[in-house]
Amino acid sequence: MITLHELRTISLEFRRVSSNFLNCDDDTADVALIRFYFYLTKTEWIHALIADILATTEFDFRDCFPAHSSGWRETSIPVDEKQHFKAQFDYLEFLAKRTPVNVRGEAMQYYHSARKFTEIIQSFVCNTFKPMIDYINDAISMEMIVLEAETKLPVPAVYQTIENNYGTANAQGTGSITSSNISTSTVSDITDLLVKILPSLDLLSDVPQDEIDNVKDDLESVEEQLTSAAPKKRRLQKAADGIKKFLSDFSTKVAVSVAAGSVTSADWFMLIQKLEEYISSIG
Amino acid sequence: MELTIKIQGDSEGYVTFECPFCGSEFKLQAGEYQDEEHPFEDLFCPYCGLTRYKDAFLSHEVIEQAQAMAYNYAVEEHNKAFGKMAKSINNSKGIIKMKYRPLKKVATKELKDKDTSEVEFSCTCCNRHVKALYCAGVSKIFCPYCGVDI
After folding, report:
1. Domain annotation covers residue B2
2. Which of A17, A129, A151, B93 would you label with A63, given CA atoms 20 to 30 Å apart?
3. pLDDT digits over B32-65, tens only?
């Protein structure tokens, strides 16, 4: 698994390489395109991200960048973001592997109003490949947020009162505890916690309304996935990450009293724990 | 010939810049931006993280102001030259007379940054500062100077 440090390095490198590509001129365009393509294919984490999309998406890049009978080309973006991504990557690969690469020749085939080659090339690169750069950039940032949240997430203190008992008690204040047994009652536990936590959101004070709305969306998304016939792991994971972030930011402010009793940070941690168990069980 | 553009920062000395890639606006402290002890060539956009030479990040207001100042300078020089020429021709008592209508200058405005809702974030790597939108800042932004995530 990749570490936060490694991902930060990839983020910086990727932004530098992609910026060089976006800023290329007539003299450097071919080299910048090849370097960008090589960076995507040689960097393991990014390559895995791309491979995941390519493996699950069918789309011919020429449908996204069709040629007219007049000889001009245009961009016809598909609605599906993954199809658009695949089209961009396949187009990049096509250009990088042909000899000569000739980015200027390709750029000149698209409608343009600029008079300088450099402006035409930059406009072509930006219009054609910037969405893919944004997608990868966002994916890296999101993974960094998740890794940061995991390292910062406070663990609740463990209090145990043992009376009139014999044996050994083990308690852990930090780190994570994993169990290979997945309880069949996980879903009902999560549902019970959601029923308890959701009404408490309206009573939270000192928490920005935007943050409350965001975490409410995440909790409702979990609720929706649990009742779905085919729960989606990615959505659940995204919602869980959002809830984790909320808790890491406002762990001291989530305790409130509601009609059904009181909601404490322990309930939120329990929810995250049960949610993670559930997500790993549907893997 | 050298023209100087003056921009008044907000109450904390921050000036607005604009990303050439995503068009987002952010603010940098004038003192840090002009710090001659720590010069830099490129800037990173705090939002999209992409990088370009620092002049590309000047806001459209600054560029408009620079264009207006350059235009006014050219107008002034033309008016001076043609005024002198007209005076010289008309004073020569010859049969040729010259009339000229001076070109008008365009209006320039005072560039002043107002206090906006952006919040200050500092980079743990280079200790320099940026003002960006709070929501973006708490999730993920990049240092405009060194490019690392804040």
Report:
1. no
2. A17
3. 999 988 889 999 999 999 999 999 999 999 999 9
Do A109 and A231 belong to one domain? no
Question: What pLDDT, in 10s, does the model give residues A78-116?
Answer: 999 999 999 999 999 999 999 999 999 999 999 988 999
Shortest alpha-carbon distance between residue B100 and chain A (Å):
35
- Looking at A127, A150, A173, the residue that finishes a domain is A150
Which domain, by its residues, includes B125? 9-150
Query: What is the span of the domain harbouring residue A251?
Result: 186-281
Q: Same domain, yes or no, for A193 and A127?
A: no
Asked whether this complex has an ipTM greater than 0.90, the answer is no
Same domain, yes or no: A118 and A212 = no
The answer to whether residue B97 is domain-embedded is yes
Q: What is the DSSP letter of A110?
A: B
Following DSSP, what letter does each residue of B55-89 receive, concatenated? GGGB-HHHHHHHHHHHHHHHHHHHHHHHHHHHHHH
Closest A-chain CA to B150: A8
Q: Closest Cα to residue A52, out of A139, A134, A125, A126?
A: A139
With CB atoms and an 8 Å threshold, state whether A19 touches B51.
yes
Residue B132: inside a domain:
yes
Q: Which one of B44, B50, B149 has the shortest CB-CB distance to A22?
A: B50
Cα–chain center distance at A116: 38
> pTM of the full predicted structure?
0.64
Say if A172 falls within a structural domain.
no
